[in-house]
């Protein structure tokens, strides 16, 4: 029996979760509203907000789980990647708890945790499975052979899918965070109204920089002809942008399934909360006779439950960290 307290502080959510024997008992998230007026996350403000939120968030996670601090067997935290100041807050807090209680410390890679978020649900994939992880900073196809044996088969060569959504939204004049707003408008638009080129990248890697440039020129040219073009066609533009980003992601995922022969397929990460991606993923799964898995919405965006479930499997494997462990903004797997 193992009980893990996990802390996530890689960006602008302060989160804590308790996991007991693979079951999530609590998952508390404090979202920072301060960044909205700046159109993006301000690292210094994020760090300060984490320091204000971390004690009440951790306290709430323990109380909701109905356990005592003495019952916790190990403390997990996000070590990388992320904003270094934000990561430091969570890391130091977890270290302090481990030092004070004499319990082990577990360092977790944020993107590995997104992949393993698929193991939280009762109906979970068996190994091996493929996972498409899509977030604001990363886009990867991962081969999962066990909870502690994960291999990146393909990744973005430049920008991530989440960044493509957010930057496109900014070009359309939508407020931060813009990705969810594109999803909202796309629901009422024609995805085939405007054609954006799909980049031809070899292998299983991705590229979104060319698409972003194409969207920029498209908007500039159209608004030069009609200043109200974006306002008058917002639904169709968003639907067309979303359709192209989703097709780029899923075409590579289909290729990975064919190359590996694996038909248990998952998606994860913040962008996996996108309704367009979820719907098209399910359709592709039916067409190709895949067994498909998607985490619940609360486990798609940044959260501590995914850190907790990863910490649980690391605990079982005896993969602990010393107090000398340090956070890293860009650490590789």
Write out the CATH superfamily name of the largest domain: ATPase, nucleotide binding domain
Uncertain regions: pLDDT < 50 for 5+ in a row? none
Number of extended strands = 10
- Name of the CATH architecture of the largest domain: 2-Layer Sandwich
CATH class of the largest domain, named: Alpha Beta
Major β-sheet, in short? 5 strands, mixed
Helix content: 40-55%
Shape descriptor reads globular
Q: How do the strands of the widest beta sheet line up side by side?
A: 3-2-1-4-5
Q: How many structural domains are formed by the residues?
A: 2
Number of H/I helices: 10
Overall SS class: alpha/beta
Query: SSE order, as H and E?
Result: EEEHEHEHEEEHHHHHEHEH
Which SSEs are present, and which pair or pack?
Layout: E1 3-8, E2 13-20, E3 23-31, H1 43-65, E4 74-80, H2 84-101, E5 105-109, H3 110-116, E6 129-134, E7 139-146, E8 149-155, H4 161-171, H5 179-186, H6 209-225, H7 229-232, H8 234-260, E9 264-268, H9 275-287, E10 291-293, H10 305-317
Parallel strand pairs: 1-4, 4-5, 6-9, 9-10
Antiparallel strand pairs: 1-2, 2-3, 6-7, 7-8
Helix pairs in contact: 1-2, 3-10, 4-5, 4-6, 4-8, 5-8, 8-9
């Amino acid at each position: 029996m193992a009980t893990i307290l996990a802390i996530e502080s890689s960006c602008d959510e302060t989160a804590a979760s308790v996991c007991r024997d693979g079951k999530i008992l609590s998952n508390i998230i404090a979202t920072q509203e301060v960044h909205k007026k700046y159109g993006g996350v301000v690292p210094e403000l994020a760090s300060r907000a984490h320091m204000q939120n971390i004690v009440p968030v951790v306290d709430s996670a323990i109380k909701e789980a109905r356990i005592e601090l003495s019952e916790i067997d190990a403390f997990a935290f996000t070590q990388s990647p992320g904003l270094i100041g934000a990561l430091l807050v969570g890391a130091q807090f977890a270290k302090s708890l481990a030092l004070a209680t004499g319990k082990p410390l577990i360092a977790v890679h944020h993107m590995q945790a997104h992949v393993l978020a698929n193991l939280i649900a009762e109906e979970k994939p068996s190994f091996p499975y493929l996972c498409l992880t899509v977030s604001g900073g990363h886009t990867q196809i991962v081969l999962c052979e066990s909870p502690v044996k994960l291999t990146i088969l393909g990744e973005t060569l430049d920008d991530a899918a989440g960044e493509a959504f957010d930057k496109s939204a900014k070009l359309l004049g939508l407020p931060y965070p813009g990705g969810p707003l594109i999803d909202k408008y796309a629901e009422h638009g024609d995805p085939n109204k405007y054609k954006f080129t799909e980049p031809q990248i070899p292998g299983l890697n991705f590229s979104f920089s060319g698409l972003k440039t194409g969207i920029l020129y498209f908007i500039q040219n159209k608004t030069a002809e009609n200043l109200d073009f974006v306002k008058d066609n917002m639904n169709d533009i968003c639907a067309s942008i979303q359709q192209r980003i989703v097709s780029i992601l899923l075409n590579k995922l289909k290729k990975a399934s064919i190359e590996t022969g694996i038909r248990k397929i998952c998606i994860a990460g913040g962008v996996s909360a996108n309704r367009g991606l979820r719907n098209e993923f399910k359709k592709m799964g039916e067409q190709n006779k895949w067994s498909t898995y998607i985490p619940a919405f609360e486990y798609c965006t940044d959260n501590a439950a995914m850190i907790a479930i990863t910490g649980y499997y690391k605990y079982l494997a005896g993969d602990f960290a010393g107090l000398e462990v340090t956070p890293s903004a860009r650490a590789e797997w």
